[in-house]
Amino acid sequence: MAKAQAEIREAFKRKKTIEESDIQNLKYLKLIIKENFRVHPAVTLLPRACREECEVDGYTIPCKAKVAVNIWALGRDPEYWEKPEIFKPERFKNSSVDFMGNNLEYIPFGSGRRFCPGMNFGIANIDVHLAQLLYHFDWKLPHVMNHGDLDMSEIPG
User: Fold this and answer.
1) What is the DSSP string of 35-68?
2) 90, 107, 109, 139: which sits with the fewest CB atoms below 10 Å from its CB?
3) Is residue 68 a part of any domain in this protein?
4) Does any domain span residue 33?
5) What is the number of other CB atoms lying within 10 angstroms of the CB of residue 24?
6) How far, in Å, CA of 118 to CA of 152, rounded?
């Protein structure tokens, strides 16, 4: 958070508001958003139906079978991500992996014909609002809490 705030505050010194057009140069903020989509995708299971019979890991999947792509698990798969349990925005720094659906290990908005039509709108709103929150406020836990007291466990529901 400190790194993102420093980037934002340096870029927008003495500005009262941040516009959408101002966001493009905030490289670290973009890395944070990508990493957040990896760890906390908006949709965890993506339902699909097979168009033709196929085999996956030795299992035959019949035509028209209902399947679910586990986006949450893809973002935590150590086969694709080094230390996947750690929130590390820098993993995207020199990476061509993006959320456009071309890298199937990272598909927070789906892929192919059923790609999320609201992706651009959603990302634009996240960029601007997150930048404004980090620019104008210093975030910290209440005085009675330590970082170890904050439970960030995910639960269904």
Assistant:
1) HHHHHS-S-SEEEEE-SS-EEETTEEE-TT-EEE
2) 139
3) no
4) yes
5) 9
6) 27
Domain count, the chain: 1
**Cβ-based neighbours of 6, under 8 Å, separated by 6 or more:** none
> Residue 133 falls within a domain, yes or no?
yes
| pLDDT-derived band at 138, boundaries 50, 70, 90 | very high
Amino acid at 5: Q
151, with CB counted inside 10 A (0-12, 13-18, 19+), is exposed
Joined together, the tokens standing for residue 103 give 């890298």
Whether 60 is in a domain gets the answer no
Domain with 25 in it = 2-41+81-141
How far is 89 from 2, CA to CA, in rounded Å?
13
For the stretch 131-149, what's the b/e string if a residue is b when 16 or more beta carbons lie within 10 angstroms of its beta carbon? Answer: beebbeeeeeeeeeeeeee
